[in-house]
Automatic annotation (TrEMBL):
Enzyme's top EC category: transferase
Protein name according to UniProt: Glycogen synthase
Source organism of this protein record: Candidatus Gallitreponema excrementavium
PANTHER family the UniProt entry points to: ALPHA AMYLASE DOMAIN-CONTAINING PROTEIN, GRANULE-BOUND STARCH SYNTHASE 1, CHLOROPLASTIC/AMYLOPLASTIC
Domain Glycosyl transferase family span(s) in chain numbering: 295-437
Pfam families according to UniProt: Glyco_transf_5, Glycos_transf_1
Family according to the record: Belongs to the glycosyltransferase 1 family. Bacterial/plant glycogen synthase subfamily.
Keywords annotated in UniProt: Glycogen biosynthesis, Glycosyltransferase, Transferase
Coiled coil: none
Every Starch synthase catalytic domain range: 2-240
The protein's annotated pathway: Glycan biosynthesis; glycogen biosynthesis
Gene name in the database record: glgA
Enzyme Commission number(s) of this protein: 2.4.1.21
Residue positions binding ADP-alpha-D-glucose: R15
Reactions it catalyzes: [(1->4)-alpha-D-glucosyl](n) + ADP-alpha-D-glucose = [(1->4)-alpha-D-glucosyl](n+1) + ADP + H(+)
Length: 489
């Protein structure tokens, strides 16, 4: 099959979260399974042009009432045949941020920037004389690519092209004033039919949900949750309407990058048979963070975007967050890595200087993220909602027991500890509140001090889990087939 991915982040070129890893890993596995995969991505300023190959000639892209002239660069996903095409347009992408800056978190011209990306995808296919069987669009930024074939006149060579739209996070929908609608290039007569209308504004994600042949999200539990008012971010009705074509496919993880036996970022490599070597990583982590070096106290790791989604209010909220109380009441240590909301970064700086057993690093640091996974005893991820989540899976494979909220992908990957039998792979809280996080951490810490045998068995069980992309790749193949059937019926 010929598959065209349209996304706003692709590892290793640009990455702010799990989306980038998923688009790359999925493309790689589809490539291995014999499909021809191409990806279209903006050439953001952070992506160095010198490492890319410039395609011949500029590319004119029709966009609303104008024609936008772009350049196209090309590269490849390492160790694969997957081509990545970068749309270069100084005015749209020649700035430091990806989605926004510290003063403007969501660039006002994002509707235009991502409409340009999606229109460019079609123009690129014409330029390459390569027409996909399936367009796989990711998140609201890619949504238009799943909408355009239905509501605009395209080359007849796209007639048979089916569309799949994957939602990685319902919390980001791309809602803007209707004055932005002309950028989509879609006629006003389809404003309602294509699903854009949202309380007199326009909503890219909603239109993707309405228009794509098949909608998927990144875990089975999240696929169910988003059909309820609690998790649907107002889209639950639309999703229930389309429920027969909404699928949840659990992300895999990239075992080349996340494998304790060959992780290039950690000082002591280990496997389930040499688990005792994990202690060396704990020591290295304590040293790196400036925590007291000791093996007598459990170490809890956190790596996170510091946003409400991740439960940071319950953890660090001034005066009510539970982490300061945990640090005072229990013999534990915390190593926190993250960046995000300003209040939370500031709070973490304060906690880090006031508490001897908590150290926080406010930055994006890939190497340190690997050391935290390898060196911690527990990994705390009490997300309010979590479409899939990758760190709890890394944690399981690194023998680092996850403490998670029972939601989305966390529910699909972590089994709760049974203190009678010792079964389980982590510690699960049913409902998110500062007190429930406090209690569940307390439960885990108690087990660490008093039930060493249970802890060891849980670590071993987690390390043997299979979160391979091969399984997910096969499921996406089925989704593409379903989309083709629906589209061409
Ligand atoms: P989300 O995409 O919602 O942020 P995921 O769990 O899917 O959540 O993916 C987050 C990814 O980003 C993980 O691979 C995690 O290790 C990484 N990450 C998040 N924050 C940082 C950071 N400050 N430094 C390094 N890696 C980070
Ligand atoms: C989003 C979600 C996260 C998921 C990732 C990749 O960022 O928040 O749960 O793992 O996308 O699908």
């Amino acid at each position: 099959m010929k598959i065209l991915m349209v996304a706003s982040e692709v590892a290793p070129f640009v990455r702010t979260g799990g989306l980038a890893d998923v688009v790359t890993a999925l493309s790689k596995v589809l490539d291995k399974q014999g499909h021809e995969v191409k990806i279209v991505l903006p050439r953001y300023y952070v992506i160095n042009r010198e490492q890319l190959e410039l395609l011949e000639g500029p590319m004119g892209v029709p966009l609303g009432f104008q024609e936008v002239w772009t350049a196209v660069y090309k590269s490849r996903i390492p160790e694969s045949n997957v081509s990545v095409y970068f749309i270069d347009h100084e005015q749209s992408y020649g700035r430091e941020g990806i989605y926004g800056s510290s003063t403007e978190p969501d660039y006002a011209d994002n509707p235009l920037r991502y409409s340009l990306l999606c229109h460019s995808a079609f123009q690129l296919c014409r330029k390459l004389d390569w027409f996909p069987d399936v367009i796989h669009a990711h998140d609201w930024q890619g949504a238009l690519a799943a909408i355009l074939p239905k509501y605009t006149r395209q080359d007849s060579k796209f007639n048979k092209t089916a569309t799949v739209f994957t939602v990685h996070n319902m919390g980001y929908q791309g809602v803007y004033g209707k004055h932005c609608f002309p950028h989509t290039g879609i006629s006003w007569e389809y404003f309602y039919a294509a699903g854009f209308e949202d309380w007199d504004r326009m909503n890219f994600l909603k239109a993707g949900l309405v228009s794509a042949d098949v909608v998927t999200t990144v875990s089975p539990t999240y696929a169910k949750e988003i059909q309820t008012p609690e998790y649907g971010f107002r889209m639950d009705g639309v999703l229930r309407f389309r429920s027969d074509t909404v699928r949840g496919i659990l992300n895999g993880i990239d075992k080349d990058s996340w494998n304790p036996a060959k992780d290039k970022f950690i000082p002591a490599k280990y496997s389930v048979k040499t688990l005792e070597k994990k202690a060396e990583n704990k020591k290295a982590l304590q040293e790196a963070m400036g925590l007291p070096v000791t093996d007598k106290v459990p170490l809890i790791g956190i790596i996170s975007r510091l946003t409400d989604q991740k439960g940071v209010a319950e953890l660090f909220g001034p005066s009510y967050g539970c982490v300061p109380r945990i640090c005072n009441d229990m013999k534990v240590q915390f190593a926190v890595l993250g960046q995000g909301e300003r209040w939370c970064e500031n709070e973490l700086r304060v906690l880090s200087s006031n508490l001897p057993n908590l150290k926080a690093s406010i930055k994006y640091d890939e190497k340190l993220s690997h050391l935290i996974e390898a060196g911690s005893d527990f990994y705390l991820m009490p997300s309010r909602y979590e479409p899939c989540g990758l760190n709890q899976m890394y944690s399981l494979l690194y023998g680092t027991l996850p403490i998670v909220h029972k939601t989305g992908g966390l529910n699909d990957t972590v089994e709760n500890y049974n203190e009678e039998t010792g079964e389980g792979t982590g510690f699960v809280l049913d409902m998110l509140s500062p007190q429930s996080v406090y209690d569940t951490v307390g439960w885990a810490v108690f087990a660490w001090y008093n039930k060493k045998d249970h802890i060891r068995k849980m670590q071993e069980r987690g390390m043997k889990k299979d979160f391979s992309w091969e399984r997910a790749g096969k499921e996406y193949e089925k989704v593409y087939e379903q989309a083709l059937k629906i589209h061409n019926k």
